Amino acid sequence: MRPTKYWWFVILAMLISIPLVFAVHDEDKGPEKFGRYEFKEQDIKVATDECDAGGKPGPEFVPTVRDDEPNLALLKDAKPEASSQLEGWCPRRHCIEYLNDGFYNNCRSWIIGTIPGWAQIDIGDVANVNRIYFASDHSQGFLDRTTADFDILVATTKADANSDANTWKKVYTHKGDPVSKTTEFTFKDVEARWLRLHIRANGGARVDEIEIYGGKDPMDVEPKEKFTTTWARIKTE
């Protein structure tokens, strides 16, 4: 009996020592395509296996479509970039590529290294945009590293490293409540290929995902030149 009881204590201790990875909202996986457009692969098993959650919620799906609009940040060819990232964590957590990897929460987030600085998404072609979503930590497992002082910038021809360059257009300025939960920010319709969050203040700002929206019809994310060519062809037929 004693050896049996002993092994039960060993097993219990091992289970307690294993970091928990769990979901809070349990979002469903969105469609893999929207019209002719394909989204990035969202393999939640791989994301969860790679996740260093530290006992906090693990990866949860980011929507590929909201309100019949495609998440342009999750298009297959969309690319993330940033001015810096927190050293010593990636790939366990806080990598630039986690800005639009399709998963929420801390272990799949980006944290800025040097402020002021920026994070941006290249959606691949010029498209109509009018709103974004982002949070510090979607699950609210962590309440630190929020940002309350930032601009949303867009560009169509060049993603200059300098956010003050005239190739950037400022579409939104936020100086108010810290952004902790997943929050929507809206602005007037504008054409953009690159969308940037320029962060001016707050220590160690974290962004767990950038979502970009702007068109209900898949044709709205067609490059302007192609769209014009299509209509020119229709008018001559």
**Radius of gyration of CA atoms, rounded to a whole number:** 20 Å
CATH architecture: Sandwich
Instruction: Profile the largest sheet.
Output: 6 strands, antiparallel
Counting helices, strands and paired strands, the structural category is alpha+beta
CATH class: Mainly Beta
Instruction: Count the E strands.
Output: 14
What is the CATH H-level superfamily?
Answer: Galactose-binding domain-like
Helix content: 10-25%
N-to-C SSE string, H for helix and E for strand: HEEHEEEEEEEEEEEEH
Indicate the mean pLDDT. 84
- Return the CATH topology: Jelly Rolls
**Helix count, per DSSP?**
3
Q: Quick one: overall form?
A: globular
Low-confidence runs (pLDDT<50, min 5 residues)?
6-19, 223-237
Beta fraction? 25-35%
- Number of spatially distinct domains: 1
Terminal CA distance: 88 Å
Q: What layout of secondary structure does this protein have?
A:
Layout: H1 2-17, E1 33-34, E2 37-38, H2 44-50, E3 60-61, E4 65-66, E5 69-70, E6 79-82, E7 103-104, E8 110-111, E9 117-134, E10 147-155, E11 169-179, E12 183-199, E13 206-207, E14 211-213, H3 224-236
Antiparallel strand pairs: 1-2, 3-7, 4-5, 6-9, 8-13, 9-12, 9-14, 10-11, 10-12
Would you kindly provide a written description of the structure presented here, covering whatever features stand out?
- The protein is an alpha+beta fold and 237 residues long.
- It has one domain: Galactose-binding domain-like (Jelly Rolls, Sandwich).
- 15% of the residues lie in helices and 33% in strands.
- It contains 3 helices and 14 strands.
- Strands 6, 9, 10, 11, 12 and 14 form a 6-stranded antiparallel sheet that branches. The chain has a two-stranded antiparallel ribbon with strand order 1-2. It has a two-stranded antiparallel ribbon with strand order 3-7.
- Strand 4 (65-66) and strand 5 (69-70) form a beta hairpin.
- It is globular and about 45 Å long.
- 37% of the residues are buried.
